Amino acid sequence: MNTRALAFWATLAMAGLSNAALAQAPGTPPDEHGKPHMLDQSIYFHGIFNQLEGRFGETSSFRWSGESWVGTDENKVWLRTEGRIQGGQVDDGIQELFFARSISTYFNALVGARYDLDSQPGRGWGAIGVEGLAPQFFRVGVTGYISGDGHLGAKLEGSYDFLFTQKLILQPQFEMNFYTKDDPMRGVGAGLSELDVGLRLRYEITRQFAPYIGVTYLGKFGNTANYVLQSGGNPNEVRFVTGVRAWF
Fold this sequence. Notes:
By secondary structure, the chain is mainly beta. The protein contains two helices and 13 strands, in the order αββββββββββββαβ. A hairpin with a 4-residue loop joins strand 1 (44-56) and strand 2.
């Protein structure tokens, strides 16, 4: 074997030993693919309005529901807002601020505060909950509340996307609210207070902008229904909706 061949094979051997040493260097343990694992601590921001819609029926109203967060893959500050405008009055205005921490690949634990801010007397709450994607990619959320004067509440919500095409999507959605005490000042009764169910068909012009049409049912129960009747309203309303879903 000549000198050039010996030099070539020696160079290859040295390169192989160098790579092996780097792979076993302390402080960079390889993952299952042989690459060093790094935890992503970049800061991200996301915001979405799931509902910006007009509801039309026996009475008409405007409904909004949205959320935004800023933070890393593990820890975030989370803001949620929802409410209705009907007859010039803001109703069901709920503003929530959470610290959120990832507890699994698909779920976050939330702890924070809620404030009912609308045309009625306000009320503050402490809040704790869990939200994320259940098996089969159902989006679900459960949040519990406690106020300073001993009122307890809970919200259960969920939705699912049926894809007819990559752009045409049917979404059933529900939200249920429960309370342990009557709150006449806010027109809320104990037990199952409200059920909001919707079926919306949206077309995603882009992923960030999707107009939709649909139908909703808003039901009030127990003493909540009695408060609605006393004010001259209907505790059970089915409405046609049109709106837009947008995120950034």
